[in-house]
Amino acid sequence: MVVRLRSSGDRLSTYLLGKLGPRQSQQDRKAERRSRILRQLGASDPVFSVPIPLTDPDAHPVPPAGAPLIWQRPQNGSGGLTPNPEQDLREATLERLAVMSGQSAAPDPELSYRAHHDALTGLPNRHAFEERTNHGLAYARRYGRPMAILFIDLDGFKAVNDSLGHPAGDTVLCEVAQRLRSALRESDIIARWGGDEFVAALLEVGSEQDAARAAQKLMDAIKEPLSVEGQQICLSASIGISLYPEDGTDLTSLLRKADQEMYESRNRTRLAPSTRSMADPRQAGDPRLIESQLKFALQRGEFHLYYQPQFDLHTNRVYAIEALIRWNHPRLGMLQAGSFLPLAQGSRLMPEISAWTLAAASRQAAHLKAAGLDQIRVAVNISASQFAAGDFVTTLASALDSAGAEPEFLELDLPEAVLAQDWEAAFQKLNQLRALGVHVSVDDFGSLFTSLDYVQRLPLSALKLDQRFVRGTQDHQPLLIQSIIALAQSAGIRAVAEGIETAQQLQLVRNAGCDGAQGYLLGMPVPAEELLLASLLPAASV
After folding, report:
1. 443 — phi, psi (to 5°)?
2. Half-sphere exposure of 238 (CA within 13 A, CB side)
């Protein structure tokens, strides 16, 4: 007797199931499963013949537990079922093909989750992001809705991995992932793109300003300090934004544009390392840990200003004090600028530190005037990037106004590179500063051999000689110093020698006719309350 079962799912009648017993029901299920696998593989609707034994099934061998055997009637006509190895191999092959093709009859939910999510952070992975975002793009395209793609890259994350180890880095990534998810709407898509990179798709974004606000919200979430293995870590991020349909109509184009914008954003805030006071950061501790803690230091008020006096060599009196930043590190103690500023200059922190320094120096200038020491100016170093900012003059004026300081009591020390990079722009901004009333000097003059014509035409207050001229031992060294001093004085500019550490160096610049001098021989940098200039200098609350 042969019962024909179609792949459409025909079942044995209740009568036959009762007569044939549990083994026939097992064959029924086996045939249905094999038929289902073939349908999933795209096969036609086959018909399988399942021989049913007429004798008592208990009289025949029972297959081992779990063995996928298919039974057939022996060809000699005797009763009972025997295993069919060829057909059994065919079924096992079909099952394996079904699994390999991703078309298993009963997909494993855990495997599906792993295929669409990042194993570390639990965020959707690149494949899931592309799939969901493409659906979002199709919706936006059909209904004319705007959409934004954000490419997010963590700044300085490698330093965390290198200094604290990869397990700590993994902890940071997981925390950042949760912050990003919490900062976005439920309808938005956030995914880990790889390494320390994340991507987000903002659906139904109203405008470019809305996308920028969302990006700022993500940056604020990342900036919040986090504790890893007893260390306070402060991160920042570079974020690029692309908009649909302005920047592209497909996901590849939008991602490429967002990635490009991210790198441009990072370059706009990354400053070139300064060669001034480049002490070895390793002398102060692990530079990678120092870099990660700089943001926390700014928030905790751990920065201070020390002041080094500048002497008038004609009167032997102090006419200015230069503000030098220090970091009172909770574990390493007081750090000089060379231990941490070169690290800050490669991050987004430098503009914030520069703004703090400028505001603190302005407050100190106001305290000097209030104490009757209005003949003393406060000099503060300004980086080329800070000077090049479009709102620099406005920011400076605001800092002076907030501190209640008069502009003539502040002096800005600019690197010579400012004149070498864009003389026309520098000339225009220097005229604005002169109109404001502040003094401007060129620091480390002679390091780039700036055109002498520029010096005579620019509205400057002083030229500060590069320390190499003072410390040199060549026979023509005095002649070089005299030439620079003569140039400055011919333009009505004060000539100042920096880095004076010996009595011989001081005598050298005196003989050359230098107007001012500064260095460890004349005075070490100290807090304002310790700097005595005929009377105790008042210290600003900084």
Report:
1. -90, 150
2. 22
Task: Please name the amino acid found at residue 379.
Answer: A
The reported pLDDT for the residue numbered 240 is: 92
Q: How far apart are CA 156 and CA 338, in angstroms?
A: 19
CA 94, chain centre distance (Å): 50
| pLDDT score recorded for residue 33 | 67
Residue at 344: amino acid letter: A
Q: What whole-number distance in Å separates Cα of residue 50 and Cα of residue 226?
A: 66
- Whole-Å CA distances, 492 to 314, 461, 462: 16, 8, 9
- Confidence check: pLDDT of 382 > 50: yes
Report the candidate in 134, 43, 502 with the shortest Cα–Cα distance to residue 510: 502
pTM over 0.70: no
287-300 and 157-164 are packed helices; what angle lies between their axes, rounded to 10 degrees? 120
Q: Which string of DSSP letters, residue by residue, matches 321-367?
A: EEEEEEEEETTTEEE-GGGTHHHHTTSTHHHHHHHHHHHHHHHHHHH
Say if residues 240 and 300 touch (Cβ distance below 8 Å): no
Give the whole-angstrom CA distance, residue 516 versus residue 319. Answer: 9
The helix/strand count (H/E) of the chain reads as 20, 21
Q: What is the length of the chain?
A: 542
CA contacts within 13 A on the Cβ side of 19: 10
| Pairwise CA distance, residues 461 & 442, whole Å | 8
Rg (CA), the chain: 38
The Cα–Cα gap between 172 and 389 comes to 33
Query: Which residues are paired to 306 by β-bridges?
Result: 324
| C-alpha to C-alpha distance for 411 and 304, rounded to whole angstroms | 19
Residue (of 166, 171, 167, 179) closest to 224 by Cα position: 179
Give φ, ψ of 414 to 5 degrees. Answer: -100, 140
Over residues 45-62, the mean pLDDT reads 40
pLDDT in tens, 323-335: 999 998 777 778 8
